[in-house]
Amino acid sequence: MKHVDQWTDNTTQRRQDWYFRLGAIGIGIAILALWEVLPLTGLVNPIILPPFSKVAVALFTLMQQPFFPGHLAVTFNEIIIGFIIGTLLGLGIGIALAVWPSAKRLAYPFVVGFQAIPKIVFAPLFIAWFGFGQTSKIVMAVVIAFFPVLINTMVGLESVPSDARKLMRSLKATPLQIFWKVSFLHALPIIFAGVQAAFTFAVIGAIVGEFVGSQEGLGYLLNLYNFQLRIDRAFAVIVILATIGAAGFFLLEWADRKFIFWRERS
Length: 266
Description:
The chain has two domains: 10-48; 55-259, MetI-like (MetI-like fold), CATH 1.10.3720.10. It is an all-alpha fold. 31% of the residues are buried. It has helices at 2-40, 52-63, 68-99, 101-116, 123-130, 134-158, 162-170, 175-212, 218-227, 231-259. 82% of the residues lie in helices and 0% in strands. Pfam families: BPD_transp_1. It is found in: Cell membrane.
């Protein structure tokens, strides 16, 4: 009887998942249809919002251009390197502040103060310090991406039940064993949520850096097409950036479900 109930629950859950997927697809189709109809009917100026069909053609044409792979590679490289460095930096500082309370009391106010500064104000400084190449954009991506990992690491490690730590101490576990076998595993689901947010922030950081000063990258193309009033191509670049951000986010979400299997899920 228990197996029958479990099978029924799984079937119901799968059916609900398909309903939500179909609903999301339906909403997406409705948005695209509205995007196509509004400019064609004159409700929105086509210069401001080109029809979706025109943007799709511009996207296909842009991807066929010989210069496009180079610009895509530059931005992708900035995003990935910035994301990796930002994640490692946030993880390391977060662990240090969570494990050593004295370090947290000394450094945390400065970390929060730094985060409160709008990051775009650093972009001209990074250009001046590191030049117009990829380094300044990578630094910008790191600065924006590391904070969610830092905060989630601290919150996750500080939320470990004290009873679990006491149990490990009663079993003569060393502080290092307690950290790796209890604290870190307990915090990992929360940390991974910060890592997912960090990827989308790394995309923002790289593009902001390219906006301020660059001669290559998708941000450079977006600025160029805006100045030329080629809004269809500007939207095409936006679609590409959204695809990169969403693909990275969902890839990390898949890794979360695959490897952090002990997380409680709704």
